[in-house]
């Protein structure tokens, strides 16, 4: 159904996103501020929605967003809603999915499950002490309508499935969505068993465009999508 990716996402951009995830695990304010200043989140969100069937990418971006919301850098968290336009893009993606599934033999777009998880994460964090600033964004009428018409009914169906009390499935689209909830994939974080440390003198080098040799003394050989201008240039391809 999805067909080939054109152009391919490329391993280089996946590697850059994994670097971002590692930097967030370090909880280093300087690195986080640099990510925000370089405009990383708009590019990350562009990739998320462009590659509609790339599950590995969607899971990775979901973890990035969760790490940002769990961190203590309010400026970085705000950038999700301002620079990344996260709420508007979630709403638009659901509208696009509604149109997409109207055609015969079409299943939901590939990122819909991750968007549900992200939306629930946003609402959970908005209720925590110290996150009162989030009301500025989640109180918007469009987001309130999304919660009422999309997220809350979907969560209710999921809860019923967990209790084994779903008996009627009104249409194929609904059945596919419910089937996705039956065995939700566990989030596997490859960085749980590593402590990320970067010498202070080298942290700035993570963001410049001079890649140089890798740790084995060989020139870096990214197999595709190699960009210029450091990490963000690689992401933008």
UniProtKB/TrEMBL annotation:
The keyword Cell cycle appears for this protein: yes
Entries under Pfam families matching the protein: SAPS
Alphabetized InterPro entries for the sequence: SAPS
Family to which this protein belongs: Belongs to the SAPS family.
Protein name: Uncharacterized protein
Compositionally biased residues, Acidic residues: 201-228
Keyword annotations from UniProtKB, A to Z: Cell cycle
Signal peptide positions (record): none
Source organism of the structure: Hemiselmis andersenii (Cryptophyte alga)
Ranges for region Disordered: 166-237
Domain of life: Eukaryota
GO molecular-function terms, A-Z: protein phosphatase binding; protein phosphatase regulator activity
